[in-house]
Amino acid sequence: MTFEVAARHCSFARGAAELNVTPAAVSQQVRLLEDRLGHKLFVRKARGLELTKVGRDFARDIRAGLHTLQVATQTLTKPRVEGRLRVATFHSFGLFWVLPRLPDFRERYPDVDVRLILGNERVSLSGSEADLSIRFGTQSDEGCVTEDFMRDTAIVVASPEILTGRPVMTKSADLAGFPILHDEAVAEGERRLRWSDWLKHGSPPQAECYLPDGLSVIQACLLGQGLAIVRSSLVGSHLQAGRLVRVLAHEKILDLPYRVVTRPSEARDHVHAFKEWLKEMAERR
């Protein structure tokens, strides 16, 4: 446990604060573990800690084991949660964020049937069959309970093919001359997802394509049709697999949050369980 916390923070001091012990105690525990394993887990540098390859692999395996232990413990100790859960959200978030994580929820709550209701229009719980709505922005339904659960960042991405033979880009002005993709469903007031916030200087783009939503923008980007500004949470698997690459190193924190909305009278266990699960998944991201 001590190593996992220190590895997650890449800091003995921050790990010690979480465990409510001294940094020296954390450092000693890690050294004892390294001696026992016969491998260095951290490289100790003047400006902080860095995990070795062995340390990164070990930390990943430990987290997987702790997660399995957590799920098993919850299964044995919590009351049975069951029911039908209808979750409304927009296409890109449902397909690229909720769906890949949903097996985790189903493993914890096998007696809850989940139905995703996907669409680009904001779902009002007062006139919908949905039990819970996930939104991006500040709007909420009158009389409903609304809670922010995650912040996201905007990044510029492209398929590797479109960048072949091009120099490395380090600033927004370097984007000039590339075809760009526009998401016409960007929430009003969310400037970070608009090209006007990134292309303030330099030559205009080579060509522009306007698409109806974030899902189609990501798909067009995967097909090599242009550069795209996307929410980083939605393209993690594509970046890891190399289907997309980041064009610029920097990112911009989005002005608007992700929110979960429920009815004020909603007290059913399976709805509450899903809300808490959303928060946990957001913290892990």
Features:
alpha/beta, 8 helices, 37% helix, flat
Shape: flat
Q: Main beta sheet, described?
A: 6 strands, mixed
Number of strands: 13
**Segments where pLDDT lies below 50 for 5+ residues?**
none
Can you describe what's shown?
The chain has helices spanning 2-9, 12-19, 23-37, 53-77, 91-108, 214-222, 236-241, 269-284, and strands spanning 42-45, 48-51, 83-89, 112-118, 132-136, 145-150, 153-158, 180-183, 208-211, 227-231, 245-246, 252-253, 258-262. The protein is an alpha/beta fold. The strands form three sheets. Strands 7, 8, 9, 10, 11 and 12 form a six-stranded mixed sheet that branches. It has a five-stranded mixed sheet with strand order 4-3-5-13-6, covered by helices on one side. A hairpin with a 2-residue loop joins strand 1 (42-45) and strand 2. The model has no long low-confidence stretch (mean pLDDT 87).
Task: Give a brief outline of the structure.
The chain is α/β, with parallel strands linked by helices. It has eight helices and 13 strands. α1 crosses α4 and α2 (12-19) crosses α3.
